[in-house]
TrEMBL record:
It is found in: Cell junction; Cell projection. It holds the Pfam family FERM_M. GO terms for cellular component: cell projection; focal adhesion. This is FERM1 protein. It comes from Tychaedon coryphoeus. Keywords: Cell adhesion, Cell junction, Cell projection. The gene is Fermt1.
Length: 678
């Protein structure tokens, strides 16, 4: 019997569903509550009524209609707006989730479905031993990228059960409190000099690390599982519009998984979203470096990023033949030698600084006069009817501008033309075998982009001028400390391309156990016969054959970063006042408006010139203001505008990182820059 006092004028019935696995106990429950009852009190009443002895500390209320968690247990039902028609589910906050990593391995682990995605990704990366979690996020595969696979699957047999790495017993995964996740600079882990994977004594770098040595090896080593059949089944973008589909499914970092329709045992992709890989360190980053390498490898194989035939062969030689071969051999090696470790570390120091963005300042810091370049170069200007005018001029590069004169003697007078490279697009046009060293400059002008080609005579000249152009496009001069690093990076990449035919490698490709179709994109598989590909990959392999496994992966990442399209995420947009759709490319330092039909850049806007950006949530329009009274506005057609808004804010947030900040993240600043005010 219920006493009459419980039926006061302010009490009402609230239907609750308890998500539990106990048979014989009803899941649907009804409680008599008042509006001034706080959420914590509601939990207590419910647990007392169902009388199941278990740990309920991870449970919280999920409001089905409003798609939100009631996590503030001190708030009352009135404050939340909960009324009699509300459907509340009392469920665990940590649930099982399947994640496909960049290396195409699937892991199964417990993830918080109530935390913001930014925090959930941070916890996932702690489990996987991946530092710098802010560079990654979770991606739902969009329908467009699954259609091809579904059509093929209709007539195929039942696929084999996927091999899933189960990490559900890890402390963080189980919902236990995690450590602060700091990565101390005083740590001295030992890693295998060949594989780059951590030795058993330092297998976990976090106090709550959960990877066993075997699992860490799976994530830190590269096992080539690719085949032409596998590639054929995967989504391969053919156009810019296809590439835009790849970026449509990024989850909102400021909302929880549950709020975005993710349910238990769903499959999501864990990917590097932001292409600014900060502080790559072979000592601590065996898993991180391998996963970046794998993401780059698949992007090239699936033609998500364009590269030349020469570059494709270099990538094939590095990733396929060299990395996969060393990965297999390193499985049998578990000895570690400190001297070898130091040797690898010293050899990689330049690469590491380059990948970080060149923060060292001791190279040119004492120079007071800004250096200049002066040389004879060929100027190529595209003309109508597909003709090109090629003429040699005396070029002078000073500050962020190029001036050219008829000859060296006239360099004291007025130049024929002065080109300001700040904000321009710099595209390499190189074929080492054909001795072609060109630089394509797309310089912003009032009505679009002015196209200029420079031709250099040799590798050294090209590296110096190309590095100067790249820095100038970012508003930096050759006095910047990163200039020499950029020159060395370009020369290193050219050196890898510069191979000579080895009679042994070219004449006996059949003696080598290699399936070249696994290492190049389908376009090149169709273009060449298998023996031809094998011979050419072996030729390219000569220049990288002496590298260690870690160095080969870092070189691969560096070469990927050198591609013109590196780091661009594409979206289909309609600019305010525009009559047709365009493609917007979002990079770590700029936005590029691209003609959808031709793929040519129309305009570039640098983040360094951006004053403010915001979103009109009613009409879903992104508006951005730049210096010199330049403003743009656009609506996003291929994805939610929140994704682009978050991309811009995310890149600006990542630019604030510093090693001096003890490697802790200002999560509040991230959400302030990316969350918006919906």
């Amino acid at each position: 019997m219920v006493s009459s006092t419980e039926y006061g004028s302010h009490t009402w019935e609230l239907s609750l569903t308890v998500d539990h696995q106990h048979e014989g106990v009803q899941k649907e429950q009804v409680l008599h509550v008042t509006g001034d009852l706080h959420v914590g009190g509601l939990m207590l009443k419910l647990v007392e009524k169902i009388k199941i002895a278990q740990d309920w500390s991870d449970y919280a209320f999920w409001w089905e209609q409003k798609k939100c968690w009631l996590l503030k247990t001190h708030w009352t039902l009135d404050k939340y707006g909960v009324q009699a028609d509300a459907k509340l589910i009392f469920t665990a906050q940590h649930k099982m989730l399947r994640l496909r990593l960049p290396n195409m391995k699937t892991v199964r682990l417990k993830v918080s479905f109530s935390s913001m995605v930014f925090r959930a990704v941070s916890d996932i990366c702690k489990i996987l031993n991946i530092r710098r979690s802010e560079e990654l996020s979770l991606l739902k595969q969009s329908e467009g990228t699954l259609k091809k696979k579904k059509k093929k699957d209709k007539n195929s047999k039942e696929p084999a059960t996927e091999d899933i790495l189960n990490l559900s017993n890890s402390p963080v995964s189980s919902g236990l409190p995690a450590s602060s996740g700091l990565y101390s600079k005083t740590m001295t882990p030992v890693y295998d000099p060949v594989s780059g994977s951590p030795a058993s004594s330092t297998i976990t770098w976090f106090s709550d690390g959960s990877l066993t040595e075997q699992n860490c090896s799976i994530l830190a080593l590269s096992y080539s599982t690719c085949s032409p059949e596998m590639l054929a089944e995967m989504y391969q973008p053919r156009t810019l519009a296809d590439k835009a589909k790849l970026n449509a499914g990024w989850l909102d970092s400021s909302r929880s998984l549950m709020e975005q329709g993710v349910v238990e045992e769903d499959l999501l992709l864990l990917r590097f979203k932001y292409y600014t890989f900060f502080d790559l360190n072979p000592k601590y980053d065996a898993v991180r470096i391998n996963q970046i390498y794998e993401q780059a490898r698949w992007a090239i194989l699936l033609e998500e990023i364009d590269c030349t035939e020469e570059e494709m062969l270099i990538f094939a030689a590095l990733q396929a033949y060299h990395v996969s071969k060393l990965s297999l051999s390193s499985e049998t090696q578990d000895s570690t030698c400190e001297s070898e470790v130091d040797e690898v570390e010293a050899a990689l120091s330049n690469l590491e600084v380059t990948l970080e963005g060149g923060n060292k300042t001791n190279i040119l810091e004492d120079i007071t006069d800004i250096p200049k370049l002066a040389d004879n170069l060929k100027l190529v200007r595209p003309k109508k009817l597909a003709l090109k005018a090629i003429k040699t001029y005396w070029f002078v590069f000073r500050d962020t501008s190029i001036s050219y004169f008829k000859n060296q003697e006239s360099a004291q007078g007025e130049p024929v033309e002065k080109l300001n490279l700040k904000g321009c697009e710099v595209v390499p046009d190189v074929n080492v075998a054909a001795k072609k060293f060109g630089i394509k400059l797309l310089i912003p002008v009032a009505d679009g982009m002015n196209e200029v080609y420079l031709r250099c005579d040799n590798e050294d000249q090209y590296a110096r001028w190309m590095a100067a152009c790249v820095l100038a496009s970012k508003g930096k001069t050759m006095a910047d400390s990163s200039y020499q690093l950029e020159v060395q990076k370009i020369l290193s990449f050219l050196q890898m391309k510069n191979w000579t035919t080895s009679s042994q490698a070219a004449s006996e490709p059949e003696n080598v156990d290699m399936k070249p179709e696994c290492f190049v994109s389908p376009r090149y598989t169709k273009k060449f016969k298998s023996k031809q590909l094998t011979a050419r990959i072996l030729e390219a392999h000569q220049n990288v054959s002496q590298m260690s496994l870690v160095e080969a992966k870092l070189r691969f990442i560096q070469a990927w970063q050198s591609l013109p399209e590196f780091g661009l995420s594409y979206y289909i947009v309609r600019f305010k006042g525009g009559k047709k759709d365009d493609v917007l490319g979002v990079s770590y330092n700029r936005l590029i408006r691209i003609d959808m039909a031709t793929g040519d850049p129309i305009t570039t806007w640098r983040f360094s010139n951006m004053k403010q950006w915001n979103v009109n949530w009613e009409i879903r329009q992104v508006a951005i203001e730049f210096d010199q009274n330049v403003s743009i506005a656009f609506t996003c057609l291929s994805a939610d505008c929140k994704i682009i808004h978050e991309y811009i804010g995310g890149y600006i947030f990542l630019s604030t990182r510093s090693k001096d900040h003890n490697e802790t993240l200002d999560e509040e600043l991230f959400h302030k820059l990316t969350g918006g005010q919906e």
